Amino acid sequence: MTRPGFAALVRKTRQSTGLLPRSDVLYIDKRVVVINKPPGLVSQASSKEDDQLKKFLCEIQTRHKLDGPLFPVHRLDKPTSGCLLLARSTDMARDLSRQFQQRKIDKQYFALVHSTPQALPGTSGVISQALQLRDGYVSKGQASDPACITGWELVASANKLSLLRLNLLTGHKHQIRFHLAKVLNAPILGERLYSQMAPIRCAPKDRLFLHSSYVAMERFKSAGPNKRYKLGIRSPMPPEFFKVCSHIGIDISPENRRGGVFIDDLPAEDMENMDGVWMPRDM
């Protein structure tokens, strides 16, 4: 649970080095933590990688003086960065798992892709393609398999690259990566599994340009006329994303550069009256 002086304590404890970047945690309240997952970290570990994930979560608990364990309730692919939701109790983990199953959690991503507006089938759309997983790779599923659904919207385009905003309406390993590369024919910059597109000079060769930019969940107030509300957390645009976009001439809005906390899709201007803490403001 957040406490008096918590934000000041955070400023003093961010100086150590380790797995966590400076913007390791985006938001904390008494029920959830939203971390800014770095690329390269697994979020649903196998036995081989379990120690790395445990060390990451342990460092978060220690650095931010959190009581009790943290429970991952969804996953991001290893090379994907951005918002990763953690529950602070088993009860909250069950509640969030229920919301994921009922599609009440909003999940938005940004992707830089190899495509031009002329090559896309419009400025927005929905990809509905069943997928199957075999030996760690995804391929098209059978007609009888449940559809995997990804909504997409063109944000901007320049120099044969486009910035897409994506809404993940179902969850399947490599869903966005496969849908964009094999269905939309717009592979993500840095994609190696499902595309052979050449890298560009201004982008790191080992970076997949897919970022979990926003996650929103259903919450309840203890008092007031409208007790049910949507709590949304937006991650700041990663520096390497911003650098490439600036280099090729794509403007990033201030909202997406900064990130922030949102209540029912509106910016939460007065964080002092909320139970949570937006961490990047104290960096």
Q: What is the name of the CATH superfamily of the domain at 25-210?
A: Pseudouridine synthase
Any idea of the CATH topology of the domain at 25-210? Pseudouridine synthase
- Write down the overall geometry: globular
- CATH class label of the domain at 25-210: Alpha Beta
Category from helices, strands and their pairing:
alpha+beta
Oligomerization status of the protein chains: single chain
Write the element-wise H/E pattern from the N-terminal end onward: HEEHEEHEEEEEEHEEHHEEE
| Mean of residue pLDDT values | 85
**CATH structural architecture of the domain at 25-210:** 2-Layer Sandwich
The amount of beta strand, in percent, is 25-35%
Unreliable sequence segments: 1-22
Distance between the termini: 20 Å
In which range does the helix fraction lie? Answer: 10-25%
> Over the alpha carbons, how many angstroms does the gyration radius reach?
19 Å
The main sheet comes to: 13 strands, mixed
Give the tally of β-strands. Answer: 15
If helices are DSSP runs of H or I spanning 4 or more residues, what is the number of helices? 6
Catalytic activity: uridine(2819) in 21S rRNA = pseudouridine(2819) in 21S rRNA
GO cellular component, one term: mitochondrion
Pfam family, one: PseudoU_synth_2
Subcellular location: Mitochondrion
Explain how this protein is built:
The protein has 283 residues and is an alpha+beta fold. The chain has helices at 6-13, 50-63, 90-101, 175-183, 239-248, 254-258, and strands at 25-28, 32-37, 71-72, 81-87, 106-114, 124-128, 131-134, 137-140, 149-158, 161-168, 210-220, 228-234, 260-263, 266-267, 277-278. It is globular, with a radius of gyration of 19 Å. Mean pLDDT is 85; it is low at 1-22. Belongs to the pseudouridine synthase RluA family. Pseudouridylate synthase responsible for the pseudouridine-2819 formation in mitochondrial 21S rRNA. May modulate the efficiency or the fidelity of the mitochondrial translation machinery. It catalyses: uridine(2819) in 21S rRNA = pseudouridine(2819) in 21S rRNA.
